[in-house]
Amino acid sequence: MKKIGIIGAMAQEVERLKGEMEVRRTMAKASMEFWEGTLNGTDAVVVQSGIGKVNAAICAQILCDIFEVTHIINTGVAGSLKNEINIGDIVVSTDALHHDMDARVVGTRLGEVPQAGCLAFPADGRLAHLAVTCCKEANPMLSVYQGRVVSGDQFISDRQVKDKIIGNFQGFCVEMEGASIAQTAYLNHVPFVIIRAISDKADDSAEMDFPVFEKEAAAHSAALVEHMLPLI
Ligand code: ADE
Predict the structure, then answer these.
(1) Assigned fold of 4-231
(2) What's this model's pTM, rounded to 2 decimal places?
(3) 213 pocket-lining for ligand 1 (C-beta < 6 Å)
């Protein structure tokens, strides 16, 4: 029996999903509120993790241990790392890595978690394919891209920092949770995908753009998640 864990970092990223859910119970754990029930006819647990990689990892582990979810989807917004990916567009993860992990002193590559066995945590191919297909159906006006999501405990709003991340990791978008959810899912052998709508360009315009476009972008991503649930 499938049960989908859905994580958004901020209230705007989960409010639509909570509103549309038939809630069976809520549970508070690690200062997070887990909403369990059915969403678009599918068993699901929706949770706001809070911002940042530690919150997201704790949240994903609780979904695995206590709710025994069969799949994890991370929904939310991100900064674009490619000129052609614009505000409002959707990025679906192929894989995810930590752009702020640097343990090269012990012989790993930049971005690689020691002993992880891979540089980037691969998203589930079926979930990613489904997300892209559903996006084209549900939002034919939106452009959807499939590529690497890079995460760090840092809001990127500086062209030079952005360029360095692009040069190092060839990411499509940058955010603050995806890689830790990916790592947690990977360690627990739970298939995952990250779906992010672009709220800003992760450069010097980001601090202005983010508050303007974040709400609408978050709603697009959540709408896509809702649409794909029964097809998982
Ligand atoms: N989430 C949305 N935009 C972001 C950015 N520019 N940096 C990090 N996380 C983000």
Answers:
(1) Rossmann fold (3.40.50)
(2) 0.98
(3) no
